[in-house]
Design brief:
Blueprint: E1 7-10, E2 13-19, E3 24-27, E4 33-36, E5 42-45, H1 63-69, E6 74-75, H2 77-85, H3 90-102, E7 106-108, E8 113-115, H4 118-147, H5 160-166, H6 174-179, H7 185-194, H8 205-208, E9 229-230, E10 236-240, E11 249-254, E12 257-263, H9 274-282, E13 286-288, E14 291-293, H10 301-304, E15 312-321, E16 327-337, E17 339-343, H11 344-348, H12 358-373, E18 383-388, E19 393-398, H13 402-424, E20 431-433, H14 446-456, E21 461-463, H15 487-502, H16 513-546, E22 553-562, E23 565-570, E24 575-580, E25 589-599, E26 604-616
């Protein structure tokens, strides 16, 4: 029976019993009265006690002596109070209860308190001393951090939470909280830059989008020995940018037949194998200004990329066209090809009448016209190549070579032909489609018009059901020309290879539609993350490039206007950025801009408009 004015513990707080009955009335420090169940409280001292016991005092006593005396036995709380403090009063009982709750020397219940073993006490003491030392060291670190006098690299361990937030691995940061600063990604990035822990050359964006650091590691077997058609007698050209180092497609023309030769990793990379799973999880090769993070191991390139070895294995798409450029037939053929690698600049020089690429240029022009008649939408924006070396960040405009359009048209023909080939054979296959966009009634000219069209584009649809691709002007479409760079292309190649081996779409070697959809979804999610990582990384490096160019002058093209705010494209940077306008600018007008500030953590540059350059772009 609990008596009035007894001292009890309620949620580790002292309380006086003020009322008894079915429920116990207790008085807490500060005078608060609660009615609680008897099982919710613990008896500390029978009293009678006054309210002074609700304000515990720190008492001195022989704690270690009592601990040593209790070795191997147990006592109730009142006896522990007598052993430690020499008497059993309400205050000494509460202090003894505190020793039990502290848990360093004693454990058990109020009715039976025993001494902990010496080894346990020693381990606990060391643990507590370590925590206290950590608290002191952290307080000293925070003082150094506020004073801007970090001891690096020793202080780096205290900044791990800041880096974790800056990389997007967590949403909390104790250090920023202790400093009274917002727990945001830009703020973490800013702190690391301010204190010299990071330099501006640290790019956190791939990690923020969950991109695996480094290229794929799962080894890819060499191409197997198999029957391949010898096409080394055909002139085959791999045309790409001068900085490309993983060519995976090449072109040949034989009369009215277009040959598109494609790297053939699916000859050895089977569904469900380690390199296949790793490629699927990556989705695409990620091309960053600082380097490439490859979907397939780097060591596989010499064996599978086209034109690196004198003769390359390929999966060749033989596309027969009529006089208007319509596809009459498509064949898929494992082959051997001898590839000549050309840059776009070199290919453009071979476009004249009678030159090696004249026929391919004519074919590409014909296909572009065919697609235009089918309603294809053509959007061209200025592009730049961003390169990061140990010495500098450089940004160079990409020239709009004719051969770039040539390659694009031939790749589209290969995708269109492959889609028809798979459909005719009822082969489960990854198709790409797009629903019509909502085009404006009066489309704008120039770059503002291109921007307007881009905003009308609907996202592509990956499916096992073929459908039209609106902006390409194609009834059926897929992508098959980059199996070293895109997993969806590799997946298409695996299905083609399975059919060629088995001769039927019903084979167990061919993935069914449900499994195909699962792989497409996984790969597309990874590909979308890579796309975001690539775009944000490019913006980051543009900010780094601009960071020492305050008050520099630039030309921008007005893409959009909303009141006194506008969106401009700076072609020399490939950067679209909002600005305040003077008021009289028109769409497509070239305006003069001055760079006033750069905020690398926010990936933002502030430009002010100085006036019009007096010209308009034609697009």
């Amino acid at each position: 029976m609990i008596a009035l004015k007894s001292l009890v513990a309620y949620k580790n707080r002292p309380a006086l019993v003020a009322e008894t009955g079915d429920k116990i009335g207790i008085c807490l420090p500060g005078g608060e009265i609660l009615r609680v169940r008897e099982k919710d409280i613990e008896m500390i001292h029978p009293g009678p006690c006054g309210t002074e016991v609700l304000e515990p005092e720190e008492l001195s006593g022989d704690v270690r002596g009592a601990w040593e005396l209790l070795e191997g036995s147990s006592v109730p709380l009142r006896e522990l109070a007598e052993l430690v403090y020499g008497e059993d009063t309400a205050k000494t009982a509460w202090a003894a209860y505190g020793l039990l709750q502290d848990g360093l020397y004693f454990s058990g219940t109020i009715a039976a308190i025993s001494a902990r073993k010496s080894g346990e006490v020693e381990a606990e003491e060391q643990k507590r001393q370590g925590k206290q030392r950590e608290v002191r060291e952290r307080e000293a670190f925070l003082e150094r951090l506020r004073a801007g006098d970090l001891d690096l690299p020793g202080d780096s361990r205290f900044l791990q939470d800041v880096e974790a937030l800056a990389y997007g691995r967590t949403g909390k940061c104790r250090t920023l909280k202790d400093l009274g600063r917002p727990e945001t990604l830009p703020e973490a990035h800013r702190l690391l830059l301010e204190k010299g822990v990071w330099t501006p050359r640290v790019n956190p964006y791939p990690a923020r989008f969950g991109v695996t650091a480094g290229s794929a590691q799962a080894p890819l077997p060499p191409p197997p020995e198999e029957d391949r058609r010898d096409l080394t007698g055909l002139a085959a050209f791999a045309i790409d940018n001068s900085w490309s180092d993983d060519p995976d497609d090449a072109l040949s023309l034989e009369g009215d037949t277009l040959w598109v030769h494609v790297a053939d990793p699916a000859a050895a990379l089977f569904p469900g194998s380690p390199p296949d799973l790793e490629a699927r999880d990556r989705g695409t090769t990620l091309y960053l200004p600082e380097g490439s993070i490859r979907m397939i191991t780097e060591e596989a390139l010499p064996a599978y990329a086209l034109g690196i070895a004198p003769v390359s294995p390929a999966l060749s798409f033989k596309i027969t066209l009529d006089a208007q450029g319509t596809i009459l037939d498509t064949e898929t053929i494992p082959s051997l090809v001898r590839v000549t690698r050309l840059t776009y600049e070199e290919a453009d020089a071979l476009a004249g009448e009678g030159a090696p690429l004249a026929g391919l240029f004519a074919l590409a022009d014909r296909n572009r016209k065919r697609r235009a008649q089918a309603g294809a939408v053509f959007i061209r924006f200025p592009e730049v190549h961003i390169r990061v070396s140990e010495e500098e960040v450089s940004i160079e405009p990409i020239q709009p070579y004719r051969s770039s359009d040539l390659v694009r048209e031939c790749m589209l023909l290969a995708g269109e032909g492959a889609a028809w080939w798979a459909l005719q054979r009822r082969l489960p296959f990854p198709y790409i489609s797009q629903e019509p966009g909502d085009l404006p009634g009066s489309p704008l000219p120039g770059l503002a018009g291109a921007y307007q069209l881009r905003r009308c584009m609907r996202p592509r649809i990956l499916s096992v059901r073929p459908a039209s691709h609106w902006s390409l002007g194609l009834d059926r479409y897929t992508q098959v020309t980059s199996p070293l760079r895109r997993y969806t292309d590799l997946l298409a190649h695996q299905q083609i290879r399975g059919f060629l081996r088995e001769g039927t779409a019903e084979s167990d070697a061919i993935l069914g539609e449900d499994e195909l959809l699962l792989r497409l979804a996984a790969a597309d999610a990874a590909a979308q993350a890579n796309l975001h990582a690539e775009r944000t990384s490019r913006t980051h490096w543009i900010m780094v490039y601009l960071s020492d160019k305050r008050d520099s002058s630039w030309e921008g093209v007005v893409l959009e206007k909303r009141g006194n705010r506008g969106l401009v494209l700076i072609p020399a940077l490939g950067l679209e950025t909002p600005v305040s306008l003077k008021g009289g600018e028109e769409l497509n007008e070239v305006v003069l801009l001055t760079l006033k500030s750069v905020r690398i953590p926010e990936a933002e540059a502030n430009f002010i408009t100085e006036g019009s350059a007096g010209t308009k772009t034609e697009g």
